[in-house]
Structures are given as C-alpha cells and as structure tokens.
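Tokens in:
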C-alpha cells in the first residue's frame, strides 16, 4: 500500500486552513482544534482521541487513558466543575462554558468546554482550543443535538438482543447523528456480513481490502477529505469522496462516505467512534449470551439438546398441537448392549460411541424433528405433526444402525437400538408427560426382546 497523507491516519484530522475551510464546526475567522474524551463516574478517562491528548500537551492517547480529571485541571477548577456543574446534569443535557486546564508540563491554559451526560455512568468531555496565537475560544456550538440523538440511540441499542437488529439500529443512529450519502457495516465472521448498504447492493471495501483492512490493522478511526484521491484504496466509484471508517474492535468496521469533499468533521469521527465502541460491547455481550444459552440447552457430550431444554420445547409444541389440532409422536431410544462397551473397552470409548449414535439419530430424522439426550444411553425424539410416521423413522434408524455396525472402527460388539413410540393427541385425556412415559415403557418392552 502506498504512502498516505499523515493526517489521514490521525483522528485529529487535517490542520491547515485550506483543508478545514469547509468544516461545519469552523468559524470563518478562527481555526479550532477539538478533542473528545469519555469519563466514568469515578472521573477516570476511559476513552480519548489523539486531539484531546495533544491539547493537554501529551504525545499520545495511552499517556492520558486511565488518568483522572484531577491530573488535567487545577484543584480549584475541577472542584468547581465537580461541585457545581456535573451534579446538575441530567442525562442528555449539555453544559457549555470555559475552563482552565493543566498541561502535562503543568502550564495552565484556557479552553472551551462542553460536558454531556450520556449515561448514568459516563460523561462526554469535549474541549475546544484555538491554534497557538489565535483568540480565546468561544462556546462550543452544534454538538448538542448530535449528542442527544446519540444518547437516545445508545439507549435503544442496549435493549436489543438480536445481532441483526443491533446492526440495523446502529445504522439508524448513524443517520441521526451524521450527514452522509452511503453507509455500511461489515462484520468479521467466517466471511463478510453487510448489515446494510444504500449503494445499490454493492459493498465499499470488503474485510481484507483497502480502507476496511487498514482500519482493522490500525485499530483506529480514519477520516479523509477525498477518497477518490487515494489510489491505494481503489475506490469503487468516482463519486466517493470524504469518508470515515471506524473499527468495531476486531469484529469489523463501520463506514460512511459522502459525495462531497471534506464533508465530515472531527466531531463526526469522534461520535462514530463512541458509537462503534458501544456496538462492539453490545455485539460481544450478545455473542457471549448466545454461547451461554447454547451451552445451557445442549448436552456437553453429544451436542444434542438436553433434557432441561425439553421442558421448554414441550410447552411450545403442545400449544401448537392444540391450536392446529396436530398430533405429536415421541420415540424413545436406548442402545442395546452399551454396558458391554464400557466394560470391554472403556468409558472414553463409550462416550465416542454415544456421540456417533447421537449424530446418527440427528442425521436421519426430518428437519422439524428434535433429538434429545434423555439420560445415559437413552435418547428421545420429538416428531411434531406426526401421526403414524414414527414407524418409518424406526425402520430407517434400524437400517442406519446396521450400517454403523459394519463401518465403525470403535467397537466389535454389535449394537442395536431399542425403540418405543407413543402418540400425543391434544383432544385425548393423556397428557404429554404420560405419553412420553408410554413411549418409555414401550421401549423397555422392545429392549427385553433384544
């Protein structure tokens, strides 16, 4: 990849008057630099952009992360803000004014300050300072509505538990807080997943290519004035100009692109990074909760559903059977001579046998049918909307078990399946639990004959 302008790789953005002449947050006569941080309720800085660090005289973000505000302000000043301003803020409300900061070398300086409460535990702390030699900063303008909409969007985001809904909601929040023409989210998960793109079905940059890949490699938000000017990125269309590309941790990227040159401000990039940080946290939590749920309802050995999940499934299937007047068949299955496997080989080999038989059962039932490990070497198959169809399933499973005996390289002991079926009819007096008991008794009768 060719050399890219230094400012492109810096979330602080360009610093020349010419580069910033169209920025929406600039006044015609004064050039400002802005920095943004997120502060928790212990006054600890949990996020900053590079401009924030530079304004306070630090060389990089890592020098400021995890510091408390007492390190950046004189005692009297932080006391004033902590005592008079912050406690009065309601969620979504913004305070704007001036403050005296403390640089790394302990030099005091005046700057504009906007504080917004985005959650009960987080503040956005935005500073605004003129470049050296220019007049004192004026109060920040134009960010109130963006932060308010961001806060509302993050609140909605926290309530969602489905990954697709979370991604769609994220793009809706983007549309509320940033002015752009095209947008896309790409997630790294065995390939590319674009939640939404309004570019006639095209993608901007696939993971592993151009701007998207550089964003992941750098692990930081990139902003530029004219994408078509960077041949290293091989833009898809000439109408692609200014852009922001933000990483979702290592999960993927969010990209917004404008038809206009220099459409995005540093404030836009800061807000997008805040949004993607929350998106990463939400997606990670949903994935974790999904993994925990999967673990809770699956048998750890065979991967089949466990008996705990059976209770949940039964309630739904019985309700459906009653509503649509459908029957449910239950097939109880036990492995004949399985004890001989454990005694003659080992319990480890026995576990392998159970795993393979579980797969055999799962692979030889219909799509709607559900296979459970009921306990030990017993399995239960639930066959919705099935009347007499269980006989065909029994015959097929017997045939497949015979093949397994011929082909397996685990044991030489011939194994067969004892099976018993029972049918639940919502119009009859027999309960679903009694029906399963009936299938169980039928299975034991079959077992006696083997």
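Residues out:
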């Amino acid at each position: 990849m060719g050399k890219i302008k230094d400012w492109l790789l810096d979330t602080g953005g360009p610093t020349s008057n010419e580069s910033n002449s169209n920025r929406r947050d600039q006044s015609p006569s004064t050039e400002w630099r802005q920095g943004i941080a997120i502060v928790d309720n212990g006054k600890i800085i949990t996020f900053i952009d590079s401009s924030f660090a530079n304004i306070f005289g630090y060389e990089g973000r890592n020098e400021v992360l995890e510091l408390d505000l007492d390190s950046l302000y004189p005692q009297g000043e932080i006391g004033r803000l902590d005592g008079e301003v912050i406690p009065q803020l309601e969620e979504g409300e913004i305070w704007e004014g001036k403050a005296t900061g403390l640089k790394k070398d302990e030099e005091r300086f005046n700057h504009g300050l906007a504080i917004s409460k985005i959650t009960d535990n987080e503040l956005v702390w935005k500073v605004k300072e003129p470049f050296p030699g220019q007049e004192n900063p004026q109060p920040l303008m134009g960010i109130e509505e963006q932060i308010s909409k961001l806060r509302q969007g993050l609140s909605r985001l926290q309530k969602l538990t489905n990954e697709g809904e979370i991604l769609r909601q994220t793009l809706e929040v983007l549309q509320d807080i940033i002015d752009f023409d095209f947008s896309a989210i790409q997630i790294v998960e065995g390939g590319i997943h674009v939640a939404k793109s309004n570019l006639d079905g095209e993608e901007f940059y696939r993971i592993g290519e151009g701007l998207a890949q550089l964003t992941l490699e750098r692990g930081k938000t990139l902003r530029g004035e004219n994408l078509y000017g960077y041949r290293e990125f091989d833009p898809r269309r000439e109408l692609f100009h200014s852009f922001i590309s933000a990483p979702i941790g290592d999960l993927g990227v969010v990209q917004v692109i404008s038809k206009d040159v220099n459409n995005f401000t540093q404030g836009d990039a800061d807000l997008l990074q805040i949004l993607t940080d929350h998106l990463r946290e939400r997606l990670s939590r949903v994935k974790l909760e999904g993994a925990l749920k999967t673990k809770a309802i699956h048998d750890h050995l065979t991967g089949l559903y466990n008996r705990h999940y059976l209770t949940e499934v039964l309630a739904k299937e019985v309700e459906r059977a009653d509503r649509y007047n459908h029957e449910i068949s239950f097939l109880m299955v036990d492995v004949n001579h399985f004890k001989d496997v454990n005694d003659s080989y080992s319990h480890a080999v026995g576990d392998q046998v159970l795993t393979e038989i579980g797969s055999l059962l799962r692979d030889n039932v219909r799509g709607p049918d559900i296979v459970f490990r009921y306990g030990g070497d017993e399995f239960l198959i639930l066959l919705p909307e099935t009347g007499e169809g269980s006989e065909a399933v029994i015959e097929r499973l017997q045939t497949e078990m015979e093949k397994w005996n011929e082909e397996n390289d685990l044991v030489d002991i011939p194994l067969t399946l004892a099976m018993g079926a029972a049918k639940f009819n919502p119009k009859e007096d027999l309960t679903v639990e009694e029906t399963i008991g009936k299938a169980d008794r039928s299975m034991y009768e079959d077992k006696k004959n083997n």
